[in-house]
Structures are given as C-alpha cells and as structure tokens.
Amino acid sequence: MLVPVPVVAPSAGVRSLRASALCGLLVPAVSGVYLAGTTGGPHRAAMVATVAAMAVTGLLTYVGAGAVERSDRRVPVELVGAAATIVGAAFLGVLDGGVASPLGALLPFCLVFFAVATPPRKFAPIAAGTALAYWFVALTGGEAPPGYAWVRSLGYGLIAYLCLRHHAALTSLRRRLAQVSRVDSLTGCLNRRGFDERLATELARAEATGSPVTLVLADLDRFKDVNDTYGHQAGDDLLAWAGRTLTDGVRTHDAVGRIGGDEFAALLTDTGTGDAQAVVKRLRATLGPVAPASIGCASYPDEAATAAELKILADQRVYQDKTARVRQVPSSGAVAAARAALERGVEAKVSRRERRRHSTADMGRLGIAVGWSGLAQALVFSTANPRQAAMAVILALAGVLGALVMLTADRLSRSTRLRHWMNAYGFTMYAMATTVVALDGGASSAMAAGLLAGMPLVALSTPRRIAVPLLAAASLSYLGLATFVGASSAWHVAMQLGGTLAVATVCGRQGAVAGQQRRLLTALSRVDVLTDTLNRRGFEERFTAACALAATTGAPIALLIFDLNGFKQVNDQHGHAAGDELLRWVAHTLQTNVGPGDVVGRLGGDEFVVLLTRPNHDSPGAHTDRRAPRAVADSLRTALAHRTAASVGTAVFGQHGTDFDTLYAHADHELYAQKTQRLPAGAPPTTHAPTY
C-alpha cells in the first residue's frame, strides 16, 4: 500500500540557523558566569551590555528560524548572526585584557563550534573573520606570553579544520546511507519506502501549486514463469533491465520505483490524464519485446485525491489490462539479449567500518596537529626556556605517534581491540601533553592549548565510552597543572576549561545525533519495508559474514530458498493489497518457526530465504534430525501450507559451495527441479486475515 510518509523533522536550513544561533547563545552564557563572579572588574557595564545584546540576538534567531527560512533570507541572517557573535566575542576579549585573559579564548571556541555547525561553503568566510578578529584582540588587547597568539591560532585552526573535515565525512556518510535506504539494490530504482516518500512529497507539492501528478503501475507479464523457466538469476537480470528501461523512458525529474517483486511504479510530475496516456503507450512499446507488462495509471486531482485512491484506481486498470491482453512468457532469445545488454550501475557504497576508520585517522591527525604545531612553538618562541630540548623531543614523538595511527587507521579499524588501542593512544598523548605544559610553566602557558584544543574533536569523532575517559583525564590533568604548577588566575582556568567542555559537549551531541541517524539509516537500508525481514542487501551482507565465520571456525551454515506457488493468482484475483498481506504472513510464519540465530530475508516478490545456523548434516536418516537442512525446510513448508504452497531449495556451506552466489545457484536449481517434478507442496494460497 502506498502510504504518505509525514516529514516532521526541521529542514536543513532551520537546523543550520539554530546551530548558528546556539553559538551566539554559548558565548554570552560562558561570559555571563565570568562577569557574575567578577563584578568589580573594569569595563563591566560595557561587557554586560554586550553579553545581553548577544543573548537577545541569538535567542531571536533561534526562535524565529522557521520564519526566516520561509522568507528566503536564511543565508544573510545566518552570516549576520555569525558576524555579530564574532564581533561581540572580540569586543569582550579586548575589554577583558587580550587573548591571554579569561575571555580571550572565546574566539577560538567559536571557531571550533562553527566548524561543526556550519556548512563547509560558509565556514571559509566565517573562519577568516574569526581569525582577523582574534588577531585584532591580540594586537590591541593586553600583553600575552611570547608566541601565545601564534600557537593558539595554529592549534585551534588545525583542530577546527579537523572538526570540519570529520563533520563533512559524517554528512557524506549519512547522505549515502539515506540514498541506499531508499534505493532497490537490484534495479537501481527507488524501493517501496523511497517511492512512498517521493509520492507523498509530490502530492503535497501538487496540492499547493495545483499541478497534476500521475501514478503509473506496471506488472511484468508471467514473470513467475520466467523464474521457473530460466532461473532466478535470469529473472533478476530481467528485473534490472526493466527498471533501467522504465527509468530511461521517463523524464529526469520523474521517479521510478520497484514496489514489489515484478511490480514497478512511475510518478509523472506535472502530467495529467491526457499526457499520461502517451507516456503509458511509449513505455508499453519499449518493454514489450523483452519484458511485456500490464500497465495502468491514475491522475491527481482529476481521478483521485489521495495516494491510496491513486493506487487503487491504477491497480484496477492494471488488472483490466491483464484480462484484455494475451500474456506470454518472453522468449529465451529476448531474455538473453536483455541480460547481455544490461549495464549494472554502481551502487553507493557504505562500508560498515567507514566511521571507525575516519575516527581513528582523525585521532592520528589530532596527534600530528598538537605535536608538530607545539614543536614549532617550542623551537621558535621557547628559546629562553631551559627545558626547550625536552619539550621539543616529546612534541616530535607525539607527532610521529599521531602519524603512525593515521597511516594504520584502516588496519586498526578492523581490530576487535580498537577501543583498547585508542584508549591507550589517547592516554599516552594526554600524558605527553601534560608533561610539555608542566615544562612550559603551567595551565596559563601557551602550550596549555595542546591539552585543551583537541577535546572537541575527541568528543565529536569517538564513541562516548572512549571519549568520556579521555576528556576526564585531560580535565583532571589541566586542573592538576593549575594546582601544582601554576596558573595566572582561577578564573582563567575556569573559563579555559569550562569553555572547552561546553564546546566539547556540543560536539559530542552532534556526534551522538549523527550516530543515531547513521544507525537508523543503516537499519532501513537493510530491511524490507513490507515484511520487516532483511532485504536482499541486508541478507547478502549477513550471509557473507556467516560464510567468512564458517570458513575460519568450521561453524556449519545452510541456505534455504522458498518460492510461493500460485502467488501471482492472489495478486491477479484479489489485488496487490491481498498479496502484500499474504507476504507479511509468510514472513511472520518463517520468523516464528526458525531457530535462535537463524535469519529470514526477502529477496523480492514471493521469494524468501533463510540463513540456517548450526544445522546438522543431512544424512540418510536426516528426516529424524530436526536441525538437518532438509528437515528444517520441510517443517517450514508445512507451517506455510496453512495458507500457501511453497517450493524449497537447500544448499549447505562447504558441500555445495562457499559463497552466497554459488550456494544460491545450487538451492535455486534444487527448487526448480522440485517444481518440474510437481512434488506436492500444500494448499493453494488463501487471503483470509491471519492472527499474529
């Protein structure tokens, strides 16, 4: 059933505006605490007025983000808001005494925040403005230790770049996962979920603009016979050819989806009833020589007012087309020609280890940034420090260690002990940074930036179970340095550490939300929306992993393929809604009757598969062994026989092959042999509603 999918999340523009406003609120929040505790300091009236103005501006931007987005003035408002935050932070830094004052770190904090909250194309001008403002504070404010402004600019600039880079990588990963979750892996068309969402969007747009929309449904003729005659691989190739042909037959701004086994749908935007008939005629002629189809269409608003009404009317016309034509199985020559001409597209790839690899590499880059920028500071500005040589050696080693982690990130990301390796690396780096800060003079020295600057990136790029201990270690180290080595003032320590933790908290929240979205999209990309079982992509990934485990440990696995007999009659006689209900019942029945650890998937149409884990070997007496593959297959077929007949094929890892394609081919051959031998397989399909 085509059901509109409501979209309730804020748009990307609203989220971007609110993120910019949040930075505008973060600065007055941190500054307000400091001003409340130092009421007797100079310039307090001007500083309080600045903080109040920034708070009001940020609050108004956050609350009015939706209205600003609708007014098409989002970009100017966002840039003006960022400029106001930068100017306000610079003014506070100058009034407080310069870059080495407690509020002198506001601009570096803003730079890191903007890196994770601003799109890359907008970050460059904002970063340039922040850098100019920081050096204005450095040149016009109070005196700072030698090299203080340089090392802070370089250190926080590199950290901001790494945060921006990591945030962009996460955005790319989510975008590709979103694409994968809406695309049918076999045909490259939209899957049912993606097509439903597109239909809901286009109907909403049509309602707002008054433009027509036409839904076209196409059901390939006698596709079941194609699978039975030429095999499921030939059937898959024919589906892929049909999907590509339909996509080529409509405009680029139209949409094509595979919404069932051999059922396709096309959405023709700005197309009414008359124009749609010409498109249907063209599609029928294009498909006809290789994959003839029964086609029906319905148009909004002339013939239907909702997605459900469009679906029902178009489905009725598909059935009328079926009964009015003589449907034939494509010839072997036509199928072979289509398979030969098929050009398989490249699916957007999303590695399961991609985020782990990015996070590991970024931790290495953090070590390089902190180590080698600190080394430059030590060599240029610490010539009068008798401990310069020791500082330089430690910082050089930190940079080398970071480079090793970055270069081996791919290998480390495969390790089951990655968490332990990264904890050890993180604690080692913080121990080295703490030693350097102690040698440089304490918590208010220029080198203290190396201990604090990396905390936001750690929070953004690493899981919470790794980030929290590392951030706690860095915070305790900084407090220990302030207590036992020295600091310019308690407020300097509080503002530096408090501001860093505030930005790290925001970065950690960004990383957590990105992780939740990634996990949701990963699940959606691997689950069949109709039956809630694994789809082709998800099942093949799970089966491939099981094969790898079986090859190394010898754990037995088997593959079962189920093909429903007479399913096409259900769709033709009772409609696709009845067929969908039967497929859901079959999926539920299989999931209920398989053993713990077994996996059920739907490859498409009425074809289901089961990954059988820990099966016993088939043998002459296997019919008495409930975990033998053939015995399990017979048991599941008996369970299905309450409503539908099914043919079953089995394949055992090691005995019939060692990969999914080989095992699938063997099981498919066995299933086809069973069909041709006309073995009894149970009752014909029924359409009564089950209880589950």
Beta-strand proportion: 5-15%
Helix content: 55-70%
Distance between the terminal alpha carbons, to the nearest Å? 19 Å
Give a count of the beta strands, DSSP E runs of length 2 or more: 8
The assigned structural class equals: alpha+beta
Global morphology: elongated
Give me the number of helical elements. 26
Protein model, in words:
It is built from 26 helices and 8 strands. It has 692 residues and is an alpha+beta fold. The chain folds into 4 domains: 10-144; 184-341, Reverse transcriptase/Diguanylate cyclase domain (Alpha-Beta Plaits), CATH 3.30.70; 348-524, no CATH class; 536-676, Reverse transcriptase/Diguanylate cyclase domain (Alpha-Beta Plaits, 2-Layer Sandwich), CATH 3.30.70. Helix 19 packs antiparallel against helix 20 (464-484). Residues 1-9, 618-625 and 679-683 have low confidence and may be disordered. It holds the Pfam family GGDEF. The chain crosses the membrane at residues 19-37, 43-63, 75-93, 99-116, 123-141, 147-164, 363-383, 389-409, 470-491, 543-562. Keywords: Membrane, Transmembrane, Transmembrane helix.
Summarize this entry quickly.
It contains 26 helices and 8 strands. The protein has helices at 12-37, 44-63, 65-70, 74-96, 106-117, 120-140, 148-181, 192-209, 223-230, 232-248, 273-287, 307-324, 332-341, 354-381, 388-407, 409-413, 418-440, 449-452, 455-461, 464-484, 490-525, 536-553, 567-574, 576-593, 629-640, 660-676; strands spanning 213-220, 255-258, 263-269, 293-300, 557-565, 599-604, 607-613, 645-652. Keywords: Membrane, Transmembrane, Transmembrane helix.
